[in-house]
Amino acid sequence: MMAELNGSDAFIDTDKLIFGIGQVQQITGVSGRQLRYWEEQGYIQSLSQKKGAAREYSLHTLFFVFHVTRFLKDGFTLQAAVDKAKQFDRQLPVLRQFLRSQLKGVDFEDDESILDLGYVDASHHQRIFGVVKDGETYFRIKDV
């Protein structure tokens, strides 16, 4: 049975997920010194700019730090890693918007997870499904 999703369903308000500098260090493996340097360079921004206040970061910034470190581990310079993370960051709202409007539900059949991505076009003669099976992904189109 497909769990139907409504594009207007409330998602968690990620703006309310706030992490202290210690938590960001623990989750990402980036030192507090590095985080402060990245902030001085304008690569990231803490939520509170008050002098002496404990640094806190948004979930968005936490993910950005994670992606910068991923690109650094891949051998990129800090500037190149930041640029690649910014490029990746610009893609996320587009992906989020597409999934919110297109994803109609997810079903689990035997060894497959099936994402209902709606109709192929305005004729409503075919539906497109994304399939995840054994770590592989592919599309399936069915006549309706």
Q: In summary, what is this structure?
A:
The protein is built from four helices and seven strands. The chain has helices at 21-28, 32-40, 59-73, 78-102, and strands at 3-4, 18-20, 56-58, 105-109, 112-119, 126-133, 136-143.
Structural features:
144 residues; 40% helix; two-stranded antiparallel sheet; elongated; five-stranded antiparallel β-sheet; 4 helices; alpha+beta
Description:
With 144 residues, the protein is of the alpha+beta class. The chain is built from four helices and seven strands; from the N terminus they run ββααβααββββ. It has helices at residues 21-28, 32-40, 59-73, 78-102, and strands at residues 3-4, 18-20, 56-58, 105-109, 112-119, 126-133, 136-143. The strands form two sheets. It has a five-stranded antiparallel β-sheet with strand order 1-4-5-6-7, with no helix packed on it. The longest helix has 25 residues, at 78-102.
Give the CA-CA distance, first to last residue. 17 Å
Helicity, in percent? 25-40%
Low-pLDDT parts are none
Which oligomeric form is depicted?
Answer: single chain
Question: How would you sum up the major sheet?
Answer: 5 strands, antiparallel
Order of helices and strands: EEHHEHHEEEE
What's the alpha carbon Rg, rounded to whole Å?
20 Å
Number of helices: 4
Mean pLDDT across the residues is: 89
Strand fraction equals 25-35%
